[in-house]
TrEMBL record, chain A:
The gene is atpF. It comes from the Bacteria. This is ATP synthase subunit b. Residues 38-127 form a coiled coil. NCBIfam families: alt_F1F0_F0_B. It comes from Roseibium aggregatum. The lineage of its organism: Bacteria, Pseudomonadati, Pseudomonadota, Alphaproteobacteria, Hyphomicrobiales. It is found in: Cell inner membrane; Cell membrane. Its main location: membrane.
TrEMBL record, chain B:
This is ATP synthase subunit a. The chain crosses the membrane at residues 20-41, 78-101, 107-127, 165-187, 193-216. Keywords: ATP synthesis, Cell membrane, CF(0), Hydrogen ion transport, Ion transport, Membrane, Transmembrane, Transmembrane helix, Transport. GO terms for molecular function: proton-transporting ATP synthase activity, rotational mechanism. GO terms for cellular component: plasma membrane; proton-transporting ATP synthase complex. Key component of the proton channel; it plays a direct role in the translocation of protons across the membrane. NCBIfam families: altF1_A, ATP_synt_6_or_A, PRK05815.2-3. One of its GO terms (biological process) is proton motive force-driven plasma membrane ATP synthesis. Gene3D superfamilies: ATP synthase, F0 complex, subunit A (1.20.120.220).
Length: 261, 242
């Protein structure tokens, strides 16, 4: 075993050449290719990361927008519901008011009609009563009704107590006061003179009454002296009948009302 | 029986002898260079990579990672030198499967040449990295007293590097030769297989040791001593292979 220095030198040269050749043909291309591939992979990963971030960002934005829309929809819905509620209330109130108005109108009308009916009934009843009384009185007592009325009024005037008489005569004596006698039927002159005489006897000789006809008095006499009034009338009998009729009509109206509602 | 392929003269011209060591070295170089060139000429940088390119990438990145593990900074700086050491020794050892082939690493001239390359490369790398003064100062560490021992260590490890590789490969060839004459047919094949394994292990040991020497010389004193400690066990790894 011996060292061949020439061979050693040749081998060193060979080795250095091999290093150069492999550097040229192996290490540089391979490491460059690997580095490039790694760079590309890294680039793609970065790209993917970027895309992912973008996608997440977009998703977040969309989610926020969705929430915003939801909130807005909720608000719109709530507003609409509130408005609808308000509208409903208003309409209900309107309807109720209208209904109340109509009912009150109707009731007023009913009242009026009732009053009208009562008035007519009363008038007709009064007429009828007067007619019947007059015929009855004239048939059985041989006197006419006007005379009876006048007599009755005169008798009642006389029956007044002193205090009332004084008050009435004072009223008549007051300056500017007039004396008016109103009756439901037209009084004949005999009856008028009977009444005038009674006034002269009881209240004062200088009172000159003025005679008028008023249907409201019905069967009776009303004496107005200034501010004082003395009245006797068969109308008070009719009042009870009137009340009865009114009550009956009320009852009928109420049952009608409940039937309509 | 020829112990060294140095004595196998293939061609002689005016006193210049072309022995088998150099011829087979050229053969190994040709295989390495042509093989790499044929693959790297059609390199792909995309996703689809040819299997040969994958093989080369695995080898290169494996060597690179190994260098990085030893830790002397940028592995690409040492890759050509260490990688070529490994690839050359490994290829020349594996090719012993060819019947007419004599491995150049079985010649002491070749291993000495490689060891001399390492001997020169260690200070070169160290000086380019740390500067001449720092490199020279490292011989006088930890004390000036250690200067001769450091120099002796430098030389002896180069000698050990050369003789270790030579002894392993040469012995492999010689053992096969002896066994063929004693027990033909079967035993030599097993020994040949073991020789392949030994050849690869030796290639790895040679390259790693060279890198460890470079790394320990290229580092500062503190790290260098650590590296020397790390080199200790590596030195012992070789023992089973020897």
């Amino acid at each position: 075993m011996q060292l061949d220095w020439l061979t050693i030198a040749a081998q060193i040269a060979n080795f250095l050449v091999l290093i150069w050749l492999l550097q040229r043909f192996l290490y540089t291309p391979i490491t460059r290719a690997m580095a490039k591939r790694e760079a590309r992979i890294e680039e793609r990963l970065a790209d993917a990361r970027k895309h992912r971030q973008e996608a997440e960002q977009e998703a977040r934005t969309l989610r926020e927008r969705q929430q915003e829309l939801d909130a807005r929809a909720e608000k719109v819905l709530a507003d609409a519901r509130r408005e609808a509620e308000a509208l409903k209330d208003r309409l209900e109130q309107d309807v109720r008011k209208e209904f109340d108005e109509k009912r009150s109108n109707w009731q007023e009308q009913l009242e009026e009609e009732k009053a009208e009916l009562v008035r007519q009934l009363r008038k007709r009843m009064a007429d009828q009563v007067v007619k019947v009384v007059r015929r009855t009185l004239s048939d059985f007592a041989d006197t006419d009704l006007a005379a009876q009325v006048a007599n009755e009024f005169a008798r009642r005037l006389e029956a007044l107590d002193a205090e009332n008489k004084t008050r009435l005569s004072d009223a008549a004596a007051r300056p500017g006061s007039t004396a008016v006698v109103e009756s439901g039927i037209d009084l004949p002159s005999a009856a008028r003179s009977r009444i005038t005489r009674a006034i002269h006897d009881n209240l004062g000789a200088d009172i000159e009454p003025d005679y008028r006809t008023d249907e409201d008095v019905v069967l009776g006499i009303r004496l107005t002296l200034g501010e004082e009034i003395v009245e006797w009338s068969a109308g008070s009998y009719l009042d009870k009948l009137d009340d009865l009729v009114r009550d009956t009509l009320d009852a009928a109206g109420r049952s009608d009302l409940t039937a309509t509602t | 029986m020829e112990i060294s392929p140095d004595q196998w003269i293939i061609y002689e011209w005016h006193g210049l002898r072309l022995n088998a060591t150099i011829v087979f070295t050229w053969f190994v170089m040709a295989i390495l260079v042509l093989g790499s060139w044929s693959i790297t000429a059609r390199l792909s940088e995309g996703e689809t990579v040819s299997r040969w390119q994958v093989l080369l990438e695995v080898i290169v990145s494996g060597i690179r990672d190994q260098i990085a593990d030893i830790g002397a900074g940028d592995p690409l700086r040492y890759l050509p030198f260490i990688g070529t050491l490994f690839l050359f020794i490994a290829t020349s050892n594996i090719l012993t499967v060819l019947p007419w082939y004599e491995p150049p690493t079985g010649s002491l001239s070749t291993t000495a040449a490689l060891a001399i390359c390492v001997l020169i490369a260690v200070p070169l790398f160290s000086i380019t990295k740390r500067g001449l003064l720092a490199y020279l100062r490292s011989y006088a560490e930890p004390t000036f007293m250690m200067l001769p021992f450091n120099i002796i260590g430098e030389l002896s490890r180069t000698l050990a590097l050369a003789v270790r590789l030579y002894g392993n490969i040469m012995s492999g060839s010689i053992i096969v030769g002896i066994l063929i004459s004693i027990a033909p047919f079967f035993f030599p094949i097993i020994m040949q297989l073991l020789g392949l394994l030994t050849g690869l292990v030796q290639a790895y040991i040679f390259a790693v040791l060279a890198m460890v020497y470079i790394a320990s010389a290229s580092k500062t004193h503190r790290h260098g001593s650590k590296e020397a400690e790390a080199a200790g066990p590596s030195d012992e790894i070789q023992n089973p292979g020897e």
